[in-house]
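Hi R.,

Here's the input for the guanosine-5',3'-tetraphosphate complex you asked about:
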Amino acid sequence: MKAHELKRRRTFAIISHPDAGKTTLTEKLLLFGGAIRTAGAVKSNKIRKTATSDFMEIEKQRGVSVATSVMGFEYKGYKITILDTPGHKDFAEDTYRTLTAVDSVILVVDSVKGVQEQTRKLMDVCRMRNTPMIVFINKLDREGRDPFELLDELERDLGIHTRPLTWPIGMGTRFQGVYNLFDKQLELFTSGKTAVHEDVMAIDDLDSPLLDQHIGADSAARLRDDIHLIEHAYESFDEGHYREGYLAPAFFGSALNNFGLKELLETFVTIAPSPLPRETTARTVQPTERPFTGFVFKIHANLDPNHRDRIAFCRVCSGVFKRNEFYYHTRLEKKLRFANPTSFMANEKSVIEEAWPGDVVGLFDNGNFKIGDTLTEGEQLQFKGIPRFSPEIFRQLVNKNPFKAKQMEKGIRQLTDEGVAQLLIREQGNVKIIGAVGELQFEVIQFRLLHEYGAECEFHRMNVYKAFWFTSANKEQLARFLRLQNHAVAFDKDDNPVFLAEGPWSFNTARDMFPDIEFHVTSEFNAGESDAQSLISEQTSSSPRSLL
Ligand code: G4P
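And here is the predicted structure with guanosine-5',3'-tetraphosphate in place:
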């Protein structure tokens, strides 16, 4: 393993609430890297609200999001990979999963709107893995909120410590630029009709009259006060704290006007981590290890009915992935070889010979993969950290054509392997329950079952408020719970039991009655296998289902 190849890689995601400027920022970064030449080349992968009832439109837009879901480019010797995430909240699980494949994130915040709902959720996911984060506060060319107030809000709402590395001078029509606290220089914003220039000058000493000359006495006085306050109120920037996910450096600018991005990118390549070690069920895998390992974090189906293949996106975690080598699929316990692995450099797909840790490889798949699957050179391990989250909407899947039961079964299994939604099965009556985050997911399933598998389905509403995976060290209590709540227990695809609570009251009652049972809102609470499952299996030497 060439250490140099590892050190120069930066794999990250840009996350934001829709409309904060993620697409614009992505495009500008690609322009910097020379990966694209003209603005407008990166299509927004937003699925706009108006598209809710127009499925083909959704698919078209999803198609766009595939093309741009991994973007690699070179910048000053660094190999940068941006993993894009869907903006629409109904596909939030896609975003969560993508975050498991990155080493750091850039959070874009709209300076007018501040922290918004989706930012909070994304942040929760980042916190699970202590993902290092840089904050970019965007749209300074608009009349936004006070920068101190914005940072306070980030700290309060997202529970993250911030440290400004640039500081804005005015905003909206009075936006003059930023002071770079790291490099001690003034970066002036001059917006022209066709181009935006950044005038940069070193100003080590803020008391220098040069400052007054360039931005005027009032702005200079205000900036001096602000910087004084920052130096006293915020802890100094510590790279170690950033890498631990404890401290997020903050930058101010305007993606649309290409302002403040260079500082962001330069700092990013300098401080952002190269590929990090990753936890597996067996041990920690270091990126420097010689044997190849990787995991699938995203699967995208080809929607052309003549080409049923899917692309599995595999993040390389260690070693070097090579074309036409046999690799071990640890869940299926079989060897697979890939003749046409693709990379996604410069917004274009091309077949690659090898890939390094941090790289994402597209593998053509005809049904071997599901999200979270691991490839190795023979070692039996499974990467962790790809949790499923408790869904928010539950519907019973009903087959409308009994002659197509097999197609329906196959279709729903494959679609849920892709991560389109979650499948839970209630033993009583063999009820198939689809758990989703948004309505669009049901539309996707219905459409795809029909067009790809010839199976017709409908969804019936269910009285379920939330699903909780559950575990307990108290075997007797666990068995009693399973018996008593028989009607409200389903199993996920890995046979982990899930409690379907009808409302907050039923959940609270269950918790009061069974104090030794722990309820979880993500599927990953213990090495990918639930305690409930292993304990019950131990006790009965069979699946937890036998206790029902
Ligand atoms: P997203 O991917 O996070 O959803 O956001 P996107 O980049 O699509 O940006 C959302 C809107 O905000 C776009 O306007 C974009 O032009 C605008 N925008 C992005 N950065 C800035 C900025 O620095 N300043 C200002 N004033 N606006 C910014 P739109 O009208 O929704 O779309 P479009 O028609 O311009 O594409």
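One thing worth noting: The first helix runs from residue 3 to 7.

Cheers,
M.
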